[in-house]
Amino acid sequence: MSGTGAQRRRVTLTFDNGPTPGVTEDVLDVLADRRATATFFVVGTRLRRAGGRALAARAVAEGHRIGHHTATHTLQLGAAEDPEAAVAAEITAIEPDIDALAGTGETRGERLFRPYAGGGVLDERVFSPAAVRYLQRHRYTCVLWNTLPHDWDDPTGWVDRALEGVARTDWAVVVLHDVATGAMDRLPAFLDGVAAMGAEIVSGFPDTCVPIKRGRPLSSVSHLTSGSAVP
User: Residue 110 in contact with residue 155, Cβ under 8 Å?
Assistant: First the structure.
């Protein structure tokens, strides 16, 4: 594939599980230096810790997007014994915090949601029918991924896997984690590799990674949803 023109490879950067004081600000510094934008899918408990909201607000002020990555990052919606209670606890409970931040950026009015998938595995535990109904009714855009380099459990080797993932697809949605594993020390090396490929870092998402857009289904999530009654 050519590195220029209409066929230029695209990369969307996403960071999950923060914000983390001592890590997220370094990530923001690197992105600012490279003039790259990203989406930070924040966890409610981390957002509410000391320094969390200020980091998220800085991200928005610097042109990044903020998305919802559940309140606690401990309960898969499709594995919950009480699906309605799980929606209330993991999505609704943190909505005001996320909306207050996301509503201040250039994507005002757009609610981004990334589900918690244990180990990044996309299977029937990702959603429940109740969760899908809620996301559609409340006009969420659900963002999945196609490049998962496991930076959280391989703080150095993840860069090669991430670049391999970028090379395999026209538009890679890369999941990284702004948490205290040391992996983000290698973020500049990854961005150097992306630049060497001639790929363009963009802020949007391909439809293949967005099964629900502003509440409207774009593709089936039946394979990601527990039970058979999928809206």
Answer: no
Residue reference for tokens 């005002």: 108
User: 191 Cβ partners below 8 Å, 6+ apart?
Assistant: 30, 34, 36, 201
The DSSP output letter for 50 is T
Catalytic pick from 64, 69, 177, 178?
177
Residue 201 to residues 65, 112, 146, 166, 189, Cα–Cα distance (Å): 14, 19, 15, 11, 15
Domains of the chain: 5-224 (3.20.20.370)
Q: Is 138 considered catalytic here?
A: no
Whether 177 is catalytic: yes
Helix or strand (DSSP H, E) at 134: helix 129-137
- The pTM of this model reads 0.94
Digit-coded pLDDT (tens) for 206-215 = 999 999 999 9
Task: Kindly give the pairing relationship between strand 10-16 and strand 200-202.
Answer: parallel
Reported as type and span, the H/E element at residue 213 is: strand 212-213
Whole-angstrom CA distances from 164 to 142, 197, 202 are 25, 11, 18
Task: Give phi and psi for 112, each to the nearest 5.
Answer: -100, 135
Q: Per the residue annotation, which of 16, 97, 151, 178 is the catalytic one?
A: 16
